[in-house]
Amino acid sequence: MLKMIKPTIVLFLTCVIVTGLLALTYSSTEDIIREREEELLRQARESVLKEAQVFEKADEALYSDESLIEDIQIGKTAEGEIAGVVVNVMPKGYANVIKMSVGIKADGTIEAIAIIEHEETPGLGARIEEDPFLPQFNELDPQNDLILVKAGKNRTEEIQAISGATISSAAVVEGVNTAKRISMKIITKAGD
Q: How close are the terminal C-alpha atoms of the chain, in Å?
């Protein structure tokens, strides 16, 4: 009986010590991780809405019913004019959510999008952050929701899917459509 108790106690103490060390490591790096995430978001905001010099968080009540939206920042010029909004959305891709920023100018034009984080399949879905897929959204001014097509774009609203990664492509389009729909509501409210 003693032969069974001694290894159990040693294993228990080892687990307690390792858990304590992991907790200590996490607590000591938590601030660094948070700062890095904030820096990535800042860089994304600046890259998708270049005219904006200052960003202010939009009122959450305006988009609280939108499940894909994580955050909205109102971008203003140095003169205080509204340049547009940056909508951080998290649509569900093939492997997991795709965290992205969508820059919408005050006139409703999609300036650009930035993929911040994803877990899509390397060589397939991961191509959402590469040419020729990502630049399709730059300076796009669709009058209606964007539509994902598998072959041959014929209209402004059409986005060419990545071959073999339709789910990932559709998730990005869904995120952009959500951002576009809410952006005018936010811009109108911010202008009041």
A: 77
Distance separating alpha carbons of residues 135 and 87, to the nearest angstrom: 18
Rg of the chain on CA atoms, in Å? 22
Q: How many helices and strands, by DSSP H and E, does the chain display?
A: 2, 7
Q: Positive or negative CA dihedral for 158, 164, 170, 173?
A: negative
Of the candidates 127, 63, 125, the one whose C-alpha atom is nearest the C-alpha of residue 94 is: 125
Q: Is 86 exposed, middle or buried (0-12, 13-18, 19+ CB in 10 A)?
A: buried
Residue for token digits 């774009």?
A: 153
What's the rounded Cα separation, in Å, for the pair 152 and 170? 16
Q: What is the pLDDT of residues 69-99, one digit of tens each?
A: 999 999 999 998 999 999 999 999 999 999 9
Angstrom distance (rounded) from CA 17 to CA 8: 14
pTM given for the model: 0.81
